Amino acid sequence: MKGLKWKKTALHVHTPASEDYEGDKSITPKQFLHKISKQKVDVLGITDHNSVEWISKIRKAKEELELDIAIFPGIEISTKDPIHILVLFDPEKPINEMINFLGEIAINQDKYGTDEKCKYGLTTNYELEPIVKDHNGFIIFPHIKSSKGIFKRFEGGGIKDDIIAKGNYIYECQESLIDSLKATYKNIPFIKKTDFHNIDDFEKPGNYTWLKLAEKPDIFSLKQILFEPDMRISLEKPKVNTDFYLKHLKITSEYFGQKVIEFNSELNIIIGGRGTGKSLIVEILAFLTNKYPNSTKPLFINYLEKMNALFKEGDNFELLFFSKGSDYKLKRTFSDFEIKESPFREIKHDIERYNEENSYQLFKKISDEWTNAKEEDLDKLLPVRIFTQNGISDIVHNRKNLNKIIDEHGILSSNYPLFVENQKKLEEKKEKLSSLEKKLLSNYSDLKNPAEISKEIENKRKEISKLEKEISNQELKKKSLLESQKNLTYELIDYLQKYETTSFNALQELKKADELEDTEITDNKFIERTQKKVMKLQKYNLNLIEKLNEIKNNYSNFKEMLEETRKKIYDEWNDFYSNEINNLSLDTDRNEQDINNLLNKKRKALQDLTKQQHNNQEIIRKIKSLEQKREKIITEIRALEEEIFNFRKNICNKLDGRMEAKNVRIQIEKRYDKSQSRIFLVEDVYHQYPNKNQKIKRIIKTLKYKELCDFIKSPNNQAIIEKLELTENEQKRFKEIEFKNFDPSISGISNQKLLKIDSAPMKTKVILQMKKNEKWRDLDSLSPGERCSLLLMLLLAKNNNILVIDQPEDELDYESRSNIVDLIKKRKNNRQMIFVTHFQNIPVLADAENIIHMEEIEGHGKIKGQGSFEEMISSIIEMEGGENAIRLRNLKYDEFINR
């Protein structure tokens, strides 16, 4: 693991080289170090009294034993004041230089190990300090409350206060005194007293201090404790992040080549110029863990475009991470992805397709062997939040992922599996509801309003009854008889006309053959048949019979008489028919046949309506069954929504305390989707008025959800009218409202719209607020910088989820940046953080455990270096603008600071 680590230290240790060593002085350096190694000490300060006699021996023993222990060579000097001070040197400092140092302060080799005082003290401008500084040494004041300690010797202040004010030293004392001293002397680094004079002292567990130092500690690393003592010193074994953290990222690609980026379990900062691949590291982590920028589709498309541009088919990525006591390895091979920017495709479908084309392999390390672990839940194994470039600002502008942030805070909760299951069930129920509502709408469209059908049936029956009554009328029957007679008369006339031609010709032929008797018989038969037909015309046609008799008796005038008779019959009958019809009191031109035809049509229509009524009853039965099922599903959906809401509410309540800020709070509330209802109002009501009535606009904006639904169902709702204090004119206008797509079975709104309103989902609204000028202000009313600051405070709440953010400082003002740095300092010991940044204060003032410096060479991303602040100081200076920039700033600020 790269960067800073907590190390178990004992910086004040004596060997047999000290005159007052209390243990077995015959112990060898190997035995000495072997006993120390059993206590798993990481850092040792060899500080014999005025002696460096054992330094070379200890160094040699360490090499022979191959111990992984950092040894600071040092000396406990007796000054002329008289007090003791410890001077530690770099682990690699040559022994002859330390001997020269002792010579400069008048400690000769023949006095090694004794309590002989050096010629310097603290009384005159602290004479010893410049000499220590010249030899790149570091001063610790030991046992400060003892008779030879600085606090006891200079108890009255003066020199002690001047020394403390310099802030250049570490102070050692008994653990029981540290709390009271820290209360008086703020930001002073105190460590526990070791002052081991016996090898057996190492077996006392409470005598150690834990220091956060570089992987290979040196004096420069030790000096960093002075600047951030609270972050670099722990009197007890620190509770470090041991749950989840990324260990390293291995990249094999054309752009990066083959690279391994190592991470620290705490704060990791990625720095470098533009185009060096800093942001790409975050995007690779998102690719490996399926944590894509999915708050908006454009952001996801931008992410895909960058990945497609910089990686090729077959590029490999491997992530080694630690999770709950085990090592895991995540592997993924990149595949080119076709971007489809259709506005109708949901982003989740693109992500699903992306994951299918870029499947991953998960392995677990068991007994030093990697075993396939695909069945394990990656989200539980690796609870990581990743925000690619612009990810934070995108969320605060669109608020789309606040619920997701809350959910991820609860990913390690014992209730989280149930929460995930409830979400899955909720989606399934919603799909089932959608399918069921489609069936309902289909049935609604097939359904004829029952009241309308009943009304039409009643109307048809009345019409049939009227027609039946009409057809039984005597005058109508008389009219029908007259019409029948008229038709028969016309038929007779046609018959006579036909006879005129055929019979006359026949008679002429018969006369030629002198067969008159037969002809008479034939004509008599015709006349008799005609007489029978005429008799059917009753008494009105007796004159016609007489005429026929004349024809019978006088064949010589047959043709002329026939024509005269036909004309007379026609004229007389027309006059008769017209007079008779005019005498009838009928109000219709229809005859009996017309009425019968109409009656048959009405009866057929009645039959169809009765059949439709029967079908309607069947549809209503189906609708009732579907509505019951729908009501049950909605009840189940409401219960699931309530469970999901309660889970989030519980997380929000915890987060509210974990953010530890008096001017910030987080709440949660239920919200129903009013948008559909509002759309209906706007479409069906608001646009009906040319002047866009402001009162209606206010209703749309202010009515509660239930009131809004009631108003839509019943626009004449008196309670709402009274609540809104409508004028009489406005009331009148509301009562005149006509809804489009009106369904008579429901007052005021179509079935389709009613279904949407009735099943409007309950949503969880996360309310993030900041207190400004004694007034709580919601996220939406804050500036972009304040929003980002507020969201970062939420993300940095106490939690052990891994947090990865590309440029968290974006859009923050200076004050907000300062606050975020302080928050990072507080949180980094308990969780892993990985930030890409151009803001110098994050790695410097937050004392980053690991800094990764990226650079670009010939179009390829390279790792220039990685390690702790003390190891990467040159990269940080480059980030600050270079040495000259720092020097110039110091000159400009120096007078003000001193003043």
Commentary on this structure:
A 9-stranded mixed β-sheet has the order 7-6-5-4-3-2-1-8-9. With 899 residues, the chain is an alpha/beta fold. The longest helix has 67 residues, at 592-658. 50% of the residues lie in helices and 17% in strands. It has 33 helices and 24 strands. Helix 15 (402-409) crosses helix 22.
Q: What descriptive keywords fit this protein?
A:
single chain, 899 residues, alpha/beta, six-stranded antiparallel beta sheet, 24 strands, elongated
Write the topology of this structure:
Blueprint: E1 5-13, H1 29-38, E2 43-49, H2 55-65, E3 70-78, E4 84-88, H3 95-104, H4 128-134, E5 138-141, H5 150-153, H6 159-166, E6 170-173, H7 175-184, E7 190-192, E8 209-213, H8 219-223, H9 229-232, E9 233-234, E10 244-253, E11 257-262, E12 267-272, H10 278-289, H11 297-310, E13 316-323, E14 326-333, H12 347-357, E15 360-366, E16 369-372, H13 378-381, E17 384-387, H14 391-398, H15 402-409, H16 416-446, H17 450-471, H18 474-512, H19 516-535, H20 542-553, H21 558-582, H22 592-658, E18 664-672, H23 675-684, H24 694-702, H25 705-713, H26 718-723, H27 728-735, H28 751-758, E19 762-772, E20 775-778, H29 784-795, E21 802-806, H30 814-827, E22 833-836, H31 841-845, E23 850-857, E24 860-867, H32 873-879, H33 883-898
Parallel strand pairs: 1-2, 2-3, 5-6, 6-7, 12-22, 12-23, 17-21, 21-22
Antiparallel strand pairs: 1-8, 3-4, 4-5, 8-9, 10-11, 10-13, 13-14, 14-15, 15-16, 18-19, 19-20, 23-24
Helix pairs in contact: 1-2, 14-29, 15-22, 16-22, 17-22, 18-19, 18-21, 19-20, 20-21, 23-25, 29-30
